[in-house]
Amino acid sequence: MVKSELVQVLNGKFPDLQERDVELALNCLLAQMADAIVQGERIEIRGFGSFTCRHRPPRLARNPKTGEGMNLPSKVAIHFKPGKAMRDRVNAASDQNGITE
Question: Out of 40, 49, 55, 58, which residue is the most buried by the measure of CB atoms under 10 Å away?
Answer without folding.
Answer: 49
